[in-house]
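Lecture 7, part 2: worked example. A protein chain together with beta-D-fructofuranose.
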Amino acid sequence: MKKYQKFSKSDYITWYNQNLSYRTKVAKDPNRLHYHLMPETGWLNDPNGLCQFHGTYHIYYQYTPFEPTGELKSWGHYTTKDFIYYENHPPVLFPDSDIDAHGVYSGSAFIKDDTLHFFYTGNIKYFDRDDYDYILSGRGSNTIHVTSKDGFTFGEKELLMTTEDYPDTISCHVRDPKIYQHNDEYYMILGARDIDSHGLILIYHSNDLKHWQYHQQLTTSTPFGYMWECPDVFMLDSQLGLICCPQGVETFGIEYENVHQCTFMQLQFDEKTNLFSMVPNTNIQLVDRGFDFYAPQTFEDETGRRILIGWMGIPEADYTNPTTKQGWQHALTLPRTLHFEHGHLYQRPLVELQALRHKKRHYDLSLLSSAKETALVYEALITFTTCESMELTLREGVTLSYQPITTLSEENPIKKQALISYDPSKPYILTLDLGTHGSGRTTRSVALSSLQNLQIFSDTSSLEIFVNDGEEVFTTRVYGQQGNISISGSYTGSLTLYDMKSYHILTQTI
Ligand code: FRU
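Predicted complex, written out as structure tokens:
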């Protein structure tokens, strides 16, 4: 496919039928994950349109099937009923019309009257002049609505708003609509960059999901990045919250070390004025501490759980993925449930994933290193009864270490960083070090008040580490497959370890 040339479902089917050898090559890559969703070929980024409809979970995602560096986006599609057995379907939305010709960008699903309403951004790039900066000019961001009765067949694309419709103070960067319902009112939340390059969200209001009116803007009291992508407003354990992805926030000590962030902020809603605002002095919480987490989306499932799935990747990072040479790149994170406790966002892996566990073993931590554990695709649950310091090897050359910040050696550059953002209520530091296995990824850290437990998901080329019942999470890709689980330091506790079975993924033939 040519760069920025529209493609339709029939182009895709023709291409698919001509590319069996590409699929075979990708499938053989030893870095393919066993229990994560990936693109069958090519590139994947944000999860889109997450929902549960008539019992079936639909997981759409930003998808460029043809090549692994992500040019023209369509919406790929997985379904599952249990998060173990999946079906991989052909894409549902293609950049095949003048309103989304340069990418069917991210969007969301909203269920009303037994109909799925999808809202997404149709990306347009103009090439007729050479002086476009693609920030204030040269780009169109269309907000588009499309419905479906089953999640597979989509109706006509309906253009709701174009770049001209957004406020004059806003740049060409407006995208990623998500719907929040309050009583019988609907609010569409869009990520945006203003003409002074400050990130914010735009909020539109509707009574019927069809007619939308500008409602308000919302941002932090002091500027926080130049663009906020993928906003998501939702009620969680009686607290209104916003997850969004601010771009261009400066690193502060061990905070905001990634090129772009994903943050959680507490909101409030005034019932009299119907206006949203930030909770005064709200803590801006990083949703994830790893190298590869961005653009998550949440939805409420039929049992009332708020489930989050993220992109296990990040745009514009200076580290890479060797899978690109094998013709594919990126994956989705494990699905997690969200909770708001002690003024903080918690993430916990979905209980359904426990069905992947097998070959259980249990160790007292004092005996772990002599057990010579070489599992690579595993889930590890570690409970500390005490922990003053420890270094846990997760696989050969990859460690998670914990100690008081003050005891880090003076030569360790992490100490200098940690002292910049030092908070006396969190005197310990937990650091993930990928050694030489990060393909450019080095270390990421978080300050903690104590370490009580760890729940670690290791797949062939990924790690997700849930700290203290999901108070903090590190999500990362990792490239080194020699198994070795061992621990040293000053602690007491135990480890329960499971090998993990693979997802069952049935790919529909077309
Ligand atoms: C976030 C993002 C979204 C956009 C999409 C395009 O990763 O940049 O803002 O809609 O990806 O693929």
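Residues 289 and 405 are 17 Å apart (CA to CA). The two ends are 19 Å apart (CA to CA). Keep this in mind for problem set question 3.
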